């Protein structure tokens, strides 16, 4: 399965903080400058993958023709409607924490890259991707101090290799409430609602509903603190919930401009310098968002600009504070199992942060060593180009894009032929029939960014090699922004918006 992570006026400030971004490719790595990838095609396909992950009743404009309606009775066991949302990866379970993080990062993508998405004609598709998630999350959060956080028993689900349209495993429901808290999931869902409320401000009623839910869930997350371990061993929050509380408060602050959230950030929230941004560890995301607001965490212990700088210094290989392993071919490798999530998340943050630094005339400081914003953009482009094919294998890690792209992603729907509705699948035979054979999937999982290579740049394109061939929604959600910027700006060094 997927990786187990460890890891002027206020209005004007917010607008500037979320200004559209540029990605310059003044590459220090000569082979990358000449890579010449079709970033627009990669962008479009990356978004299509999210549509392949939809659960529920598919819309008439469904672009993934081998997908059909699925899990139409989700929630029935509790007499509620929990249809919709996303399957996170290659199985048929809906996990609340990564699903909400996918939505939050998609919303941030729109807020940061709106001009690029408009120019590439992908803005509406990303809006649809966000709303597919928020419509579902609103159902999950319909009652105060209660949140449905998972649909499907993963242990039972993993006993059958079957596409979601034909699954028959019980759709077990999991929830958090005052007696069974889950601060990480409640706060992440609050962040998703707050960020998305900014995206949909032209729809005042919907935006208000999202923001009201964000406020309530944040209060719930603070009042009933505790980690929810029900998604373990598949999504264990090793980092705890302080990062999610800071993350949610940050998005609520940006969405409302209310002092109560600023006070929480500066006096109550706990922050820390880390080298990872992921579904489990949100500190760097919040730090980049807050870097220009002259706030400090922990009552003044350290300002967010310093912590954002520390993240960059820990990642870049040419700083004295480098911590993150870089493969011989040049890509980030934190751990096996959906490692490309760290590639896309770092690329995203580097582009966002470089824009802020350029606009404010600042550099990253790694001790006494300044790092120019151009270096962040160059590294981000290098990382994205590696995924597209500028790597020792000269192979793409995006299904259906570029040279030698993966043909066997670890994914039930893509690897199983379309079957008539109601087909009774023999689970005992399903793995031998559809998972084990060494042959391309019958359905192309277009745009899926698979887990990626090992620490030596090696990769075996086989479904059973799940740590390296399984895609996840949150890998793709964080790739959309950098790809949109590359598609529009290419190698041009241009002024920020």
UniProtKB/TrEMBL annotation:
E.C. number(s) listed in UniProt: 3.2.1.4
InterPro entries, sorted: 6-hairpin_glycosidase_sf (IPR008928), 6hp_glycosidase-like_sf (IPR012341), Glyco_hydro_9 (IPR001701), Glyco_hydro_9_His_AS (IPR018221)
Keyword check for Protein transport: no
Gene Ontology BP annotations: cellulose catabolic process
GO MF assignments: cellulase activity
Catalytic reaction equation(s): Endohydrolysis of (1->4)-beta-D-glucosidic linkages in cellulose, lichenin and cereal beta-D-glucans
Domain Glycoside hydrolase family: 39-481
Catalytic residues as annotated in Swiss-Prot or TrEMBL: 410
Pfam family, one: Glyco_hydro_9
Highest taxon in the source lineage: Eukaryota
Extent of the signal sequence: 1-27
Keywords for this protein: Carbohydrate metabolism, Cellulose degradation, Glycosidase, Hydrolase, Polysaccharide degradation, Signal
Protein family per UniProt: Belongs to the glycosyl hydrolase 9 (cellulase E) family.
Protein name stated in the entry: Endoglucanase
Organism (species): Sorghum bicolor (Sorghum)
